[in-house]
Amino acid sequence: MSVDHMREPLLKKNHHYYKDCPGCKVEQAKELNQGVSVKNLFIIWMVVLSSTLPASSLFPFLYFMIRDFKIAKSEADISYYAGYVGSSFMLGRTLTSVLWGMVSDRYGRKPVMVIGVFSVVIFNTLFGISTSFWMAVITRFLLGCLNGAIGPTKAYATEIFREEHQALGLSTVSVAWGTGLIVGPALGGYLAQPAEKYPHIFPKGSFWDKYPYSLPSFIISAVSLVVVIACLWIPETLHKHNGNNVSTDDAEALENGSNKVDKEKTAQKSESLFLNWPLMSSIIAYCVFSLHDIAYQEVFSLWCVSPPSLGGLNFTTDDVGNVLAISGLALVIYQLTLYQYMEKACGPVGIARITGIFSIPLLQSYPFIAMLSGVSLYIFISIGSILKNIISVTITTGLFLVQNRVVEQDQRGAANGISMTAMSLFKAIGPAAGGSILTWSQKRSDASFLPGTHMVFFFLNVVEGIGILMMFKPFLGEKKKTVSDQLH
After folding, report:
1. CB neighbours (10 Å) of residue 4?
2. 191 burial type by CB count under 10 A (0-12 exposed, 13-18 middle, 19+ buried)
């Protein structure tokens, strides 16, 4: 046992804890219990999952929902309107992410997490029973505005665990986000239009027939309600000393006997984040890939259910759900088995570069896969979807690790806040852009250059190519040698 390790408990005994401070109670609990709380991990996982499911569950049935609204003048225009419904959620999140971060710093992480998940219960339910295009857009926009739980949950995942377990807390957020992006579309695909798929359970003329897209929304809302109730009993991590809110770093200074917090130093640290080129370049690359991923999810689901005359696969929502469920299962197996070894061998950026390059020919092969039929079509599109989702999660997980490794421990909350706001802005653009380009592509099926859906997948590859370039040294940069060693 090292001398420093032997001295640590003695130093902690000198900490001064405030009796009514929730943050101090958490710090005391962390000193007494050196293990990992499975309950806290599960709560964090469920909060992030509940916030992610509404963002992606609509994609398999959105084409049919817009068709039923009868707002599109032609079948090719459906993707155009679907893009705006998909973008409205992320637009709302972009406008309020910073505000919810400030609220969590002022009033605590827990209230923002509870409000964020409760907004899913209300507005996701209303979206499921939408009867017009504008009702769908407004409910999605309000859901995005009020669901600001992701950023504070990242901070909570850092604060609720001891320092040696903080990486586990942050990785739980990342895994839950990736799981939601796969499970959400699968739920939407299986549960939409239940009166047509399961008439013996949901008869014609019933509520479920009148509102065919309400069941997946209701299921997600019900899960979110359970999470809201569970969150009422989780501990708050924000320090409150003598009626004032104090950050974790400031609290440590107070606990060690300091009566004055060096605010000038804290301001300099916040400012230095924007001068941290490895951080900012990784955020930019993360935003570009987030734009690509959300546009791909929108395009893939709309392309799958489009008729063959428009270059689509003519899938049902069940078919889309099957493909995505298979992809989700493969993704979980990959994350639990292969990824950690590949990341250790190549580094987070190295493996992201390699997989990103392979994604380009994969995407451009999709229009050729559409020429198949029967079992061969299902096999090849399932393999393509599995590979594409593995590539996407590999890249985003790698960049997420970079963002948390190139900053000091006490700057990770601010760094994640910047990343979340920027990412939401790019994701707000993605669905509208993807839907519009898909509509345009489907209308030019007789073009001599990249006809039909060849064009939309070409555009997706251009965006991904820009992201790949951002991950090479001239763009990613180096903060210092030790950081470079960690990244490569």
Report:
1. 8
2. buried
Task: Spell out the residues 6+ positions from residue 180 whose beta carbon is closer than 8 angstroms to its own.
Answer: 48, 49, 51, 52, 53, 55, 56
Summarize pLDDT for 210-256 with one digit per residue, the tens: 999 999 999 999 999 999 999 888 888 777 766 555 555 555 544 44
Comparing CA positions, the residue from 142, 144, 148, 145 lying closest to residue 111 is 148
Q: How many CA atoms lie within 13 A of 234 on its CB side?
A: 30
Q: Is the dihedral of CA 243, 245, 247, 250 positive or negative?
A: negative
How far out from the chain centre does Cα 117 lie? Answer: 15
What is the three-state SS of 22-37? HHHHHHHHHHHCCCCC
Please, what sign has the CA dihedral across residues 130, 136, 139, 144? positive
Are the C-beta atoms of residues 369 and 377 closer than 8 Å to each other?
Answer: yes
pLDDT digits (tens, 9 = 90+) for 162-211: 776 666 676 677 778 777 877 888 888 889 999 998 999 999 889 999 99
d(CA 56, CA 185): 6
Q: Residue 38, CB half-sphere, CA atoms under 13 Å: how many? A: 0
Name the packing angle between helices 133-146 and 78-107 (round to 10°): 20
More confident residue, 401 or 483: 401
**If DSSP codes are grouped into helix, strand and coil, which group holds residue 241?**
strand
pLDDT tier at 264 (50, 70, 90 boundaries)?
Answer: very low
* DSSP notation for 437-468: HHHHHHTTTT-SSS-THHHHHHHHHHHHHHHH
* Helix, strand, coil percentages in the chain from 3-state DSSP, rounded to 5: 80, 0, 20
Any idea what DSSP says for residue 314? -
What is the C-alpha separation between 290 and 388, in angstroms, rounded?
A: 14
